[in-house]
Amino acid sequence: MQIFLASGPFRALRHKNYRYYWFGQAISVIGSWMQNMAMQWLALELTNSALLLSIVTAIEQVPVMILSLFAGAILDRKQKKRIILLTQSLLLTFAFILFLITYTHVVRYWHLVVLAFMRGLVTTFDNPARQSYMIILVGREDLPNAVGLNSMIFNLARIIGPAVASLVISTAGIEMCFLANAISFVPVIVGVFLIDARESQKEENGKSVFTEVIEGLKYVYTNKVLLRTISLVLIMGTFILNFNVLIPVYAKLALGRNETGFGLLMSSMGIGALTGAFLTAIRRKENINLNLLFKFILFVSIVYILLGLNKSYTVACMLFVLVGLLAISFNTSANALLQLLSGDDFRARVLSIYFLCNAGTTPIGNLFTGTISQKISPWAGFYISGLVTIALTIIVLITTFKKRNLEKTK
């Protein structure tokens, strides 16, 4: 067993502290995916509007847009463990409130908007805190493996969560998905509490948070690989990662499916995403580079165009497997590359920029795809997003090659 962990695809689990973290997350993310699907379906049932659904999903990312850079600067000064315990406890509370208002039949559309905003406010700090904590638990050498393993459980939950949620909704009621999510936070809170890892505390330097935000932005700007990686993440986050709007609209309004059909599409994407996460986990850190990111984003754009032309539910399931594989391969590889290239004093700030571009831009993307899906057709959100992504990626690609040629001629 020890030999297997030392060199196999699960080698990051040889670190006891990471095992505490990983097994807690493995349970929690299933509940989170159940809640995600249930909340999207509830919003669509309450409004029957792709645009109003896009507002609920977009509002959760508004705090990321506004506060993400400041969150990174604050986290570089703080103990990550304490932040994670606080944020996970708050997310548990929000899930339980959602259960109560749904169970008592008082839930209204505006409740979902408010709770989505509050959840987004907390995850603005939670996501970069958890991601930047992993290198403390496993070290630089096992970091790509840890990122891949974390993504594996996230995407295994993407398969299990929606499937379980659709069954729970049809048998026990949608409110039970929210209760399950609330309970699922308990193992991760216990796991983080048990971690015994020494964190290096940054000394007070008298600088304001705003000054450190500016320093973080300059740090990314002056490192060309970081800058180009972030540029691709920005494109991907805005025009591709709009699953919360695109998939339920596509399932219900384009393909005429119920919550079970929606759940199967989500699970299909989860199968591909799990495969992509596994491939990242076994990939050597030397093989994670900018060229790999270009390939992932161009291929997923082509699959989006195919989805926009497709009318078959069976074909859609197969295409969503590819979407999951390519999107998660891109995200996990970009995450690992940014962390490996960042210094310890800047890692949380670099990751906060990553989450700003990856998730903070989705309000714009959600409104973009939601409006197109409602005004043009449920298929248009896919093929237009794919075409825009290809065009913008080619611009970054051309700029990158021009820079390389200039550097070679000097």
Automatic annotation (TrEMBL):
SUPFAM superfamilies: MFS general substrate transporter (SSF103473). The chain crosses the membrane at residues 20-44, 50-71, 83-103, 178-197, 225-250, 262-281, 288-307, 313-338, 350-368, 380-401. It is a multi-pass membrane protein. Its main location: membrane. GO terms for cellular component: plasma membrane. Residues 1-404 form the Major facilitator superfamily (MFS) profile domain. One of its GO terms (molecular function) is transmembrane transporter activity. Signal peptide: none annotated. Keywords: Cell membrane, Membrane, Transmembrane, Transmembrane helix, Transport. It is found in: Cell membrane. The keyword Membrane applies. This is Major facilitator superfamily MFS_1.
